[in-house]
Design a protein that fits this description.
alpha+beta, elongated, 132 residues, five-stranded mixed beta sheet, 5 strands, Ubiquitin-like (UB roll), AUX_IAA
Length: 132
């Protein structure tokens, strides 16, 4: 046995390191499945926020939290008219990269498809919803 082949056998033994890597990776994957974090931006705000969508049960809870976070007010959402006459309109980017109005789809579908949220000026949101 040459010195190089002997050294090759020694390196990596005992296999504790690979076990630790696999164990850490497993814990990381488990913790990632617990939350659904998305970035939230608002037109005119100099900062972004990150929120966990699984904390909220319905749209009104999410909207109240966003209003408190960014200090703005959104009018009531109506399926027929969207966020009519509102200065800011909450929108989200879905898995396909399309921008949609928050509230247009059922809550569970929204949580599973939302990649990020953007609170945009109402004037820029024209064409996203029925009455916007």
């Amino acid at each position: 046995m040459t010195k190089q082949s002997f050294m090759a056998q020694i390196v990596g033994w005992p296999p504790v390191r690979s076990y630790r890597k696999n164990n850490i990776q497993t814990k990381k994957n488990e913790s990632e499945g617990q939350g659904m974090y998305v970035k939230v931006s608002m037109d005119g705000a100099p900062y972004l926020r990150k929120i966990d969508l699984t904390v909220y049960k319905q749209y009104p809870e999410l909207m109240k939290s966003l209003e408190n976070m960014f200090k703005f007010s959104v009018g009531k959402y109506c399926e027929r008219e969207g966020y009519k006459d509102s200065e800011f309109v909450p929108t989200y980017e879905d898995k396909d990269g399309d921008w949609m109005l928050v509230g247009d789809v059922p809550w569970e579908m929204f949580v599973s498809s939302c990649k990020r949220l953007r609170i945009m000026k109402g004037s820029e949101a024209k064409g996203l919803g029925c009455g916007v």
